[in-house]
Write a structure and sequence with these properties.
Blueprint (H helix, E strand, L loop, with lengths): L3 E5 L6 H14 L4 E9 L9 H9 L9 E5 L5 H6 L7 H13 L3 E9 L10 H7 L3 E7 L4 H14 L3 E10 L5 H14 L3 E6 L10 H18 L2 H8 L5
Parallel strand pairs: 1-4, 1-5, 2-3, 2-4, 5-6, 6-7
Helix pairs in contact: 1-2, 1-8, 6-7
Bound molecules: adenosine-5'-triphosphate (ATP), 7,8-diamino-nonanoic acid (DNN) and magnesium ion.
7,8-diamino-nonanoic acid binds next to strand 4.
Length: 245
């Protein structure tokens, strides 16, 4: 299966939540799915804020948290600058090689980016370049409110102009799911973006701020159910199998 790159129209848009929800739902459907965060910034591993921790517990991964992330940097910045502040350089070729290996070891590799599509990974490469070199298709997580149509269409256009295939959109964090604006946004994104919205996820508070396994187990069950009910799993399976998208 072609690996999947989860990006967003911005940072803090819900990529991690969507990534672990997808991985968990696909595993239930007997698709061996691994998640990977090549570079996380602004966190420490082993804490409830770290994407690596959330990906592990939210998806129910058996691997150690450390296996789900390649580089963790403390400054909450784009990877290039977060590395430069620490007098480091990220080894881009090594990330590409690692991504290839990871993709070959599972049915579906889902890579979570850092921030949006054009965030600098190194002095020379954007996060989009890693997705291109790994021949990934792209899933875009978008915000629910006013302004999201423009941001989403910009991201779709930037992805396609670089040769990336857009597999679909997930609109995340809606407070008022019943409002007509939500469906109208979906319609405008599908119409001008020429791609499918795979689902509209509601605002659900309660992701644990602790590292307690019991808290995470009950949260995972809750978020799994939200994803079960609000994502079109026929479409998700189609993109996982790379059919018809
Ligand atoms: N549907 C939702 N309802 C309520 N809160 C949400 C929802 N989705 C995400 N959040 C919260 O918003 C915050 C940002 O979400 P998340 O960390 O998944 O974003 P991200 O795009 O992965 O960010 P980053 O760019 O840092 O990787 C988190 O605290 C998360 O729990
Ligand atoms: C620290 C944050 N949560 C992300 N991991 C990094 C976001 C970088 C965004 C850069 C930008 O687009 O201005
Ligand atoms: Mg994240």
């Amino acid at each position: 299966m072609r690996p999947l790159f989860v990006t967003g129209t911005d940072t803090g848009i819900g990529k991690t939540r969507v990534t672990y929800g997808l991985a968990s739902g696909l595993r239930k459907r007997h698709i061996q799915t691994q998640t990977w965060k090549p570079v996380q910034t602004g966190v420490r591993t082993g804490t409830a804020e770290a994407d690596s921790f959330r990906l592990k517990w939210g998806s129910g991964a058996e691997e150690e948290e450390a296996h789900l992330v390649s580089v963790t940097l403390p400054d909450p910045l784009a990877p290039w600058m977060a590395a430069r502040r620490r007098s480091m350089k990220l080894d881009y070729e090594q990330l590409v090689e690692e991504g290839r290996q990871r993709a070959s070891q599972t049915d579906l590799l889902i890579m979570e980016g850092a921030g949006g599509l054009l965030v600098p990974l190194t002095e020379k490469q954007l996060i989009a370049d890693l997705a291109i070199d790994l021949e990934m298709s792209v899933l875009i997580v978008a915000r629910a409110g006013l302004g999201t149509v423009n941001h989403t269409l910009l991201t779709i256009e930037a992805a396609r102009s670089r040769g990336l295939q857009v597999a679909g959109i997930v609109i995340n964090g809606m407070l008022a799911t019943q409002r007509p604006e939500v469906q109208e946004n979906r319609e405008m994104i599908e119409h001008f973006g020429q791609c499918k919205v795979l689902g509209l996820l509601p605002d659900v508070q309660g992701e644990p701020e602790t590292t307690s396994p019991a808290d995470w187990q009950s949260w995972k069950e809750r978020w799994d159910e939200v994803c079960e009910q609000n994502l079109d799993w026929t479409l998700v399976l189609g993109l996982a199998k790379n059919a018809g998208m």
